[in-house]
Amino acid sequence: MEKGIDERNQELIHYVNILKNQIGENGLEDYYINELAKHTPTIVVKQEVYQKVAKIVKSHPDMQFEYLTELHGTDFQTHMEVFLYLQSISRKRSLILKTKTDRDQPIVASVTSIWEGAMWPECEAYDLLGIRFEGHPNLHRIFLGEDWKGYPLRKDYKDENPLK
Amino acid sequence: MIGWLKGMKYTLNQGTKEKITYQYPEEPIPLPDRFRGIQKFYPEKCIVCNQCVNICPTDCIQLTGKKHPDPKKRGKIIETYDINFEICILCDLCTEVCPTEAIIMTNNFELAEYSRSKLYKNLDDLNNHVTNLREENKA
Amino acid sequence: MLRTEEMILNVGPQHPSTHGVFRLILKIDGEIIHEATPVIGYLHRGTEKIAEDLQYTQIIPYTDRMDYLSAMTNNYVICHAVETMMGIEIPERAEYLRVIAMELGRVASHLVWWGTYLLDLGSQSPFLYAFRDREMIINLLTELSGARLTFNYMRIGGVKWDAPDGWIKKVQEFVPYMRRQLAGYHELVSGNEIFISRVKGVGKYTKNDAIAYSLSGANLRSTGVSWDVRKNDPYSLYDRFDFDVPVRQEGDALARYECRMAEIDQSLKIIEQACEQIPSKGPVLGKVPRMIRPPKGETFVRIESPRGEIGCYIASDGSKEPYRIKFRRPSFYNLQILPKLLKGENIANVIAILGAVDIVLGEVDG
């Protein structure tokens, strides 16, 4: 196990170097190994370069994260976060990519042009959290319908007609 | 054509097999002991610890306790105990946390009623419920 | 002059062949579909929002109701997520029981798919045969857990009950029985010329499409991608068993059919090995603190459910309720490709294509 963690560390540093070369020093906010998530390398990028980073992690020969396993948002009260779990099927590696956005005006670039699989998950995040994905071909409230008021997964959401 | 004939042969063979359908509701369905149905409640065993209320994922249990009528004894005894079977999902967590096995599961599962109010079962309903009690209640 | 007009056809939401409450708006010109718009959300119960006010043990019964055809895998994914965060060791016997239960669930789920898919295609009897054999699995799982579908069997750190006396033996007897039945199914359906000409080449997509649209499970493996979380990122005890990942190259409905049928066979193989290896006694619940409080931080784990990769994300603030919980529900991701698949198709193929994706609406809507 120890060896595996060391390897993941080197892997992460390698990814970070590639990204730094392509988008400059300032785009990356943080990077670490998430020990709670089976030691998955995690990279947090700034909102402005998020789409650019997504393109690089998919196409760079040393990364090739061509499969989007999961995309969702979380309301952390101080900010909104978009969480992507990426998988490289050819290299058998995974990566967590995150970006933060403002809570009152949550706007993030859409990654549907990179992974078509992000189509519905982005709608889900928009529906339940109100995160707008710019460039999404058909952003709509996928579960609750357009006339639903408020975004239920936000921490300050109040139900209009509570059961009790 | 060959594949189709093979399928026909399989179908015809089934005619000789024994029937496997249940004759429900004329005959009751055999259920294993662990099956989870409508709860049985023993008021005399209850110590009013509130654990079943706290663990219930759908908040369908409500109970109140009162002081023990015998002044020499400490603790509380149960006064009211209601389960709302409109929202109870029979998940077995209340019987799992109960320290005295005052609430246990039975094998009775037929809950259909003509009136919604009959789905609110109170202490007497749950106490008088005496058939098909589950024998093994703790893992 | 002949004039053609676009017509809107509404399929569902209450139609048996949509396998739940799923609505499809089709724009058709004659028999050809120009545009297909899926409408979902009829079964959205807000599991993730409800779960934010519940303790981890209380969330387990809610997960039963997502993919209600294989509730065991759903139980497992949340337990696995919490166990990964807290570093809880699970006793061996419990883990074997989990594997047996999950694989039995996989067989049962694929049987439902097999029966209903053929029913969709117009063949009645396979449905009855599939449910006859599924009933045996359901009976086994009822004996183990106490419920027919919503098992609520797993607990954080182990399982609720040890197997009753003689249960393992019953499972061991079931495996050869199921193998014989499976051979019969192949005799009945797999070689049937009508069936093959109905599904061959229908709903075809390429490997690149499957990866781009985040398909998983048999939908992905039918295009030649050998990707199974049990093999590629082993969780639980799956590295101890000898089994193959069935892969087909064609990417059409027939390939998906073949993949799923081969998966039943592999699951039986796993069950057989697990029944042999399981320790005859031992605890079934590990050392778990009385109050389950995962450390502050976040986790994401995924496992292989019958429908694909099911994942669980938990963000914890160190309290007994999750701050945010999110399930990656494979049916939701798998269904995304449907508008693309239906475009330009003949209307007679709609149900054949939708059925081959294998969705459970409880899982699509979350």
Automatic annotation (TrEMBL), chain B:
<dbReference type="InterPro" id="IPR017900">
    <property type="entry name" value="4Fe4S_Fe_S_CS"/>
</dbReference>
<feature type="domain" description="4Fe-4S ferredoxin-type">
    <location>
        <begin position="37"/>
        <end position="66"/>
    </location>
</feature>
<keyword id="KW-0479">Metal-binding</keyword>
<keyword id="KW-0560">Oxidoreductase</keyword>
<dbReference type="GO" id="GO:0016020">
    <property type="term" value="C:membrane"/>
</dbReference>
<feature type="domain" description="4Fe-4S ferredoxin-type">
    <location>
        <begin position="79"/>
        <end position="108"/>
    </location>
</feature>
<keyword id="KW-0408">Iron</keyword>
<keyword id="KW-1278">Translocase</keyword>
<dbReference type="Pfam" id="PF12838">
    <property type="entry name" value="Fer4_7"/>
</dbReference>
<dbReference type="InterPro" id="IPR010226">
    <property type="entry name" value="NADH_quinone_OxRdtase_chainI"/>
</dbReference>
<dbReference type="InterPro" id="IPR017896">
    <property type="entry name" value="4Fe4S_Fe-S-bd"/>
</dbReference>
<dbReference type="GO" id="GO:0046872">
    <property type="term" value="F:metal ion binding"/>
</dbReference>
<protein>
    <submittedName>
        <fullName>NADH-quinone oxidoreductase subunit NuoI</fullName>
        <ecNumber>1.6.5.9</ecNumber>
    </submittedName>
</protein>
<dbReference type="GO" id="GO:0009060">
    <property type="term" value="P:aerobic respiration"/>
</dbReference>
<keyword id="KW-0004">4Fe-4S</keyword>
<dbReference type="GO" id="GO:0050136">
    <property type="term" value="F:NADH dehydrogenase (quinone) (non-electrogenic) activity"/>
</dbReference>
<keyword id="KW-0411">Iron-sulfur</keyword>
<comment type="similarity">
    <text>Belongs to the complex I 23 kDa subunit family.</text>
</comment>
<dbReference type="GO" id="GO:0051539">
    <property type="term" value="F:4 iron, 4 sulfur cluster binding"/>
</dbReference>
From TrEMBL, chain C:
<dbReference type="InterPro" id="IPR029014">
    <property type="entry name" value="NiFe-Hase_large"/>
</dbReference>
<dbReference type="GO" id="GO:0051287">
    <property type="term" value="F:NAD binding"/>
</dbReference>
<keyword id="KW-1003">Cell membrane</keyword>
<keyword id="KW-0472">Membrane</keyword>
<feature type="domain" description="NADH-quinone oxidoreductase subunit D">
    <location>
        <begin position="120"/>
        <end position="295"/>
    </location>
</feature>
<keyword id="KW-1278">Translocase</keyword>
<dbReference type="GO" id="GO:0050136">
    <property type="term" value="F:NADH dehydrogenase (quinone) (non-electrogenic) activity"/>
</dbReference>
<comment type="similarity">
    <text>Belongs to the complex I 49 kDa subunit family.</text>
</comment>
<dbReference type="GO" id="GO:0048038">
    <property type="term" value="F:quinone binding"/>
</dbReference>
<keyword id="KW-0560">Oxidoreductase</keyword>
<dbReference type="InterPro" id="IPR001135">
    <property type="entry name" value="NADH_Q_OxRdtase_suD"/>
</dbReference>
<keyword id="KW-0520">NAD</keyword>
<keyword id="KW-0813">Transport</keyword>
<protein>
    <recommendedName>
        <fullName>NADH-quinone oxidoreductase subunit D</fullName>
        <ecNumber>7.1.1.-</ecNumber>
    </recommendedName>
</protein>
<dbReference type="Pfam" id="PF00346">
    <property type="entry name" value="Complex1_49kDa"/>
</dbReference>
<dbReference type="InterPro" id="IPR022885">
    <property type="entry name" value="NDH1_su_D/H"/>
</dbReference>
<keyword id="KW-0874">Quinone</keyword>
<dbReference type="GO" id="GO:0005886">
    <property type="term" value="C:plasma membrane"/>
</dbReference>
<comment type="subunit">
    <text>NDH-1 is composed of 14 different subunits. Subunits NuoB, C, D, E, F, and G constitute the peripheral sector of the complex.</text>
</comment>
<comment type="function">
    <text>NDH-1 shuttles electrons from NADH, via FMN and iron-sulfur (Fe-S) centers, to quinones in the respiratory chain. The immediate electron acceptor for the enzyme in this species is believed to be a menaquinone. Couples the redox reaction to proton translocation (for every two electrons transferred, four hydrogen ions are translocated across the cytoplasmic membrane), and thus conserves the redox energy in a proton gradient.</text>
</comment>
